[in-house]
Amino acid sequence: MTDPLTPSPVLNRKLDTLPDGPGVYLWKDAEGAVLYVGKAKRLRSRVRSYFLDEHAASPKTRLLVRHIADVETIVVPDEVQSLLLENNLIKNFQPRFNVRLKDDKSYPSIAVTVKEPFPRVLVTRRMDIPGARYFGPYTDVTLMRRSLALIRRMFTVRSCSDDLPRERRERPCLDYHIGRCRAPCVGWQGEDAYRAMVEEVLDFLGGRTVDVRTQVRDLMADASERQDYERARELRDTLKWLDRAETPAAVEVTGTGDADVIGYARDGDDAVGVLMRIRDGRLIGREHRVLENVDEVADAEVLGALLVRYYLPTEGRANRLVLPLPPAAQEELEALLPGVDLLVPRRGTAARWLELADQNARHLLESLRIESFETDERAEDPVYALGRDLGLSVVPRSLICIDISTNQGRDTVGSLVWFEAGRPKKAEYRKFRIQGVGQQDDYAAIHEVVTRYLTRRREEAKPLPDLVVIDGGKGQLGAAREAADAAGFPDMPIISLAKREEEVFLVAQGEGLRLPRRAPSLRLLQRARDEAHRFGVAYSRKRRSQRTLTSELLDIPGIGPLKRTRLLERFGSLAAVKTASAAEIATVPGFSTTLAERVLATLGARP
Could you tell me which residue, 297 or 259, shows the higher pLDDT? Predict the structure, then answer.
């Protein structure tokens, strides 16, 4: 009899394709019913742990594992959002093995009753107030209470539940006398002035906290001058807390509307479409479909086919459909979807939903590639297939792939990833800051990376890879070959992989080699190339971020390293400096009003 803690071969292959990042996993039985929903900081290690001996002593886990036939994962940006998504899915599916509450409640949110003439700010667990705007939900109730306390202190929002202006009082309440309200209940504050103040509250809850930060800093400085150090320390902690309050949620966001979000990813003749269902501002589920034979078909047509063949027949559609790009035959689709708005967002809440859906689509496509890659090669190792297809004299058990990433000739970096037996070996990853002419010349950058890497390996007496793969065409291959020869490695096998047609170039052949799209050897090269690109882009973005943060300020006459540091300590980021006023900047030590105006003028003149 099979050990119940041993996954089936099919499930085991799927477990190998799981991502390392945070997310939610759903265990399913043979009929597709959800048995258990869980969250994880690292999906791959957490999900695989169910089949380790350490769980053998748990009768509940053993019973769960006996029924497991499949697993579904949903990736999210961070652990907090995995907690929210787990809560939504448990409430939606009511899985057999999850803890269930008789009185199941949602996490609290902050509601602003913007449809009222004099809006209120209150806490709610249900999004059922007509026309209200919601912020949250808050998994940390302390965070929510501090938000409310700060709003009460910085803004004069009424705390009463009176139906204003229909109901009037004869005299104001205690809040007026302690400066927490301006008494709209007796007509001492007009609707326009109150509405302007509420707009500031909405900005604050939406994450735009520059003005509030300035007020808190002023109060902190005042408390220090009065030697009220306890109060100053409390305000300092409030500034730190504001950093946490600015992070938006992706799996559960403001608003009460529904939406269906389509994520999309493709590679060669395979594509994956993901449907994420948003209900009452919450992500409650994810479905996906795989499309084949999409090679040489435009993305708009593939998306249109997905909508016609999959989305149109589904039931319970939302009144908004968020798409990554306009589909083919959009007018005809709109006629077939009466009452549904088709949106292609570029910013805001819907754009965050779309980014999450696209991330899941990319993960599923990669899983599909790896799964088919392993299924097709049960009789043949991809490493051996690569050596055979390229005609190499040595089996490439170890290979490196080199990529160059740049940003319009600046922040040019080189990335190098190492694959051992067809798998990434991250301890051998390397990144290179390109110097000299390589900043503007892709060939020179390749030459520099190959030279530096091979020379360093020789100096450190470390083993060389069996194969060097360059991301690029014949020109990049020539630059790499020249560098290896000059460094004293004339026998080093080097090839290149060109993106557009996925052609493989070898030094001894003038024409590119086109491997079958599903060939194990091509799949391995693509995985290495994509990993090198990902690694390089991340490093290039990091360097660009560091350069932008410092150089834009240092370019301003009269701004040196000390003043730049003070400015960033005060406002937290370059974006916050750009949105500050001259008066706010002038309060920073060392800044006059003239210098503050020069800062804003210079930053504002940048594109």
Answer: 259
Q: Is the pTM of this model over 0.70?
A: no
Q: What is the pLDDT of residues 317-345, one digit of tens each?
A: 888 999 999 988 888 888 888 888 999 99
Residue 133's DSSP bridge partners are 112
Question: According to the model, what pLDDT value does residue 375 have?
Answer: 46
Same-domain check for residues 404 and 536 = yes
- Same domain membership, residue 276 and residue 196: no
- Residue 130 Cα distances to 70, 133, 238, 568, angstroms: 41, 9, 32, 41
Q: Are residues 472 and 511 both part of a single domain?
A: yes
Same-domain pairing of 386 and 531: yes
Q: Is residue 254 in a domain?
A: no
Mean pLDDT score, 148-158 = 80
One-character DSSP codes across 377-445: TTTS-HHHHHHHHHT-SS--SEEEEEEEEEETTEEEEEEEEEEETTEE-GGG-EEEE--GGGGT-HHHH
Cα 139 → chain centroid = 20
Amino acid at 75: V
3-state helix, strand, coil in the chain (%, to 5): 45, 20, 35
Peptide bond into 137 cis (omega under 30): yes
Residue 251 domain flag: no
Helix (H) or strand (E) holding 497: strand 494-498
Q: pLDDT digit string (tens) for 48-88? A: 888 876 555 567 778 888 889 999 888 888 776 776 788 77
Q: What is the span of the domain harbouring residue 297?
A: 259-365
Q: Which amino acid is at 280?
A: D
Q: Omega before 165 cis (within 30°)?
A: yes
- In sequence order, the β-bridge partners of residue 70 are 28
Please tell me whether residues 446 and 512 are part of one structural domain: yes
CA distance readout (Å), 241 to 95, 210, 224, 285:
36, 13, 19, 31
The gap from C-alpha 559 to its chain's centroid, in whole angstroms, comes to 34
162 or 145: which leads in pLDDT? 162
Q: Strand 23-28 vs strand 70-75: parallel, antiparallel, or unpaired?
A: antiparallel
Dihedral sign from CA coordinates of 160, 164, 169, 175? positive
Answer yes or no: are the C-beta atoms of 553 and 574 closer than 8 Å: yes
Same domain, 268 and 322: yes
Mean pLDDT for the stretch of residues 8-31: 84
**Nearest Cα to 417, choosing from 560, 330, 535, 279?**
535
Locate tokens 């594109």: which residue?
A: 607
Q: How many CA atoms lie within 13 A of 210 on its CB side?
A: 16
How many structural domains compose the chain? 5
Tokens read off for 109: 């949110």
The rounded distance, in Å, linking the Cα atoms of 556 and 598 is: 8
Let me know whether 297 and 357 are in one domain.
yes
Q: How far apart are CA 98 and CA 23, in angstroms?
A: 17
Q: Which residue blocks in 437-473 are alpha helix, DSSP H?
A: 442-459
Angle ∠(328,330,336) on CA atoms, nearest 5: 120
Provide the pLDDT for residue 258: 82
The identity of residue 351, as a single letter, is A
Q: Is the domain of 151 the same as that of 63?
A: no
The separation between CA 167 and the C-alpha centre of its own chain, rounded to angstroms, equals 47
Instruction: Please determine, for residue 514, whether its predicted confidence score (pLDDT) is greater than 60.
Output: yes
Residues 505, 511, 517, CA angle at the centre, nearest 5°? 60
